[in-house]
Automatic annotation (TrEMBL):
The chain crosses the membrane at residues 12-29, 35-54, 87-104. Keywords: Membrane, Transmembrane, Transmembrane helix. This is DUF4260 domain-containing protein. Pfam families: DUF4260. The lineage of its organism: Bacteria, Pseudomonadati, Pseudomonadota, Alphaproteobacteria, Acetobacterales.
Length: 142
C-alpha cells in the first residue's frame, strides 16, 4: 500500500476537508436554496459505490470520479457564470459531501479494495491491518 498519507499531513487533509464541508454548506445557505434538496442529494455521490459491482478496478475508478472535486467545481462554475442557481446548488451539495467523506477519512480509492484510500485504511481494511501485541493492545502493520 503506497501513496497513503500518515501523521500530521493526514490530519491536515482531514481538517482541510472539514473547512470545505463548512464553506460549501454556508455558501448553500446563502443561496437561499431548498434544504430538502440538500438532504435528498447529499449522499447521491455514494451511488458511485455501485461501480464495485463490476470489480475493484472499475469500482475504484467510478467511485473516484464521483468523489473528485473536479466535477462539482465544474458545476459550481457553470452555476455561477451561466447563472444557473440549481446547478450551483448541486455543485455545492456535491462538494459538501466530498468534504464530509474526507473529514471522516474516506479518501480516493486504490484498486486494492474499498478500504484502501489515499487517506489511509478504513473499515475492514483497517481492521485487517491491525494485529495484537503481547500485552493485547492493537498496533497497525502499515
Amino acid at each position: 500500500m503506497s501513496g497513503t498519507t500518515k501523521g500530521a499531513p493526514r490530519a491536515l487533509l482531514r481538517f482541510e476537508a472539514l473547512f470545505v464541508l463548512i464553506a460549501a454548506s454556508v455558501a448553500y445557505a446563502r443561496l437561499d436554496a431548498n434544504w430538502w434538496m440538500f438532504a435528498a442529494l447529499f449522499f447521491a455521490p455514494d451511488l458511485s459505490m455501485l461501480g464495485y459491482l463490476a470489480g475493484r478496478k472499475a469500482g475504484a475508478a467510478v467511485y473516484n470520479l464521483g468523489h473528485w472535486y473536479g466535477l462539482p467545481l465544474a458545476c459550481i462554475a457553470w452555476g455561477v457564470f451561466g447563472q444557473a442557481p440549481q446547478i450551483l446548488a448541486v455543485g455545492l451539495i456535491w462538494v459538501a459531501h466530498i468534504g464530509l467523506d474526507r473529514t471522516l477519512g474516506y479518501g480516493l480509492k486504490y484498486t486494492d479494495g474499498f478500504g484502501v484510500t489515499h487517506l489511509g485504511l478504513v473499515g475492514k481494511a483497517r481492521g485487517a491491518a491491525q494485529g495484537s501485541t503481547r500485552d493485547g493492545t492493537q498496533r497497525e502493520r502499515y
